[in-house]
Amino acid sequence: MTTPAMPTTDLLAGPADLAARLEDRTASDPIVLDALRRLSARFRGATGNHITTVTDETIELSGTGSTALQLFAAPVTAITEITINGEPITDYQVGKKAGILRRAGGWPDGLDNISITYSHGHTEVPADIQDAVLEMAEAFCNMSAGIDSVTTGDESIKMAASLINGGSLGTWADMVTKYTLGGNSDRS
Length: 188
Hints:
The chain is of the alpha+beta class.
């Protein structure tokens, strides 16, 4: 099974940073690049948030009658246009960090009735995301990293509790939670 190609400029951590953690790999090593591609895609998929800069993306949302509307990505860097049933509006507020739009009159109930063109994402990947991706990619490249014990009888492998609770898996889970945007609730 192959991973779809992703430009190395869109990775959530640098190949040189991963290679520095590994004893026998270089930044151009296909294993290093594959690990970072996979983990970057998995992080984006787990959070539902692209993380890096996207310019003038247009999305369709369904209004629920509430005053808050959760966008698909954050931070919001610009709103180009918002329309409701094709009519442009300007009476809204933006919670840029949380990716939330508020409107005093509410977002009218309807399916795919709100169109938003906006720019979003970080110009540089936050350090905590880079670290989580690097830790998981390192474990991916060195499958023996974090193994507490191995039993050869029935092929049992036990992950070290420190890896799960505070290391790669714990850090990964914390970062996925931190960068996942919620439904239509206000997290600002």
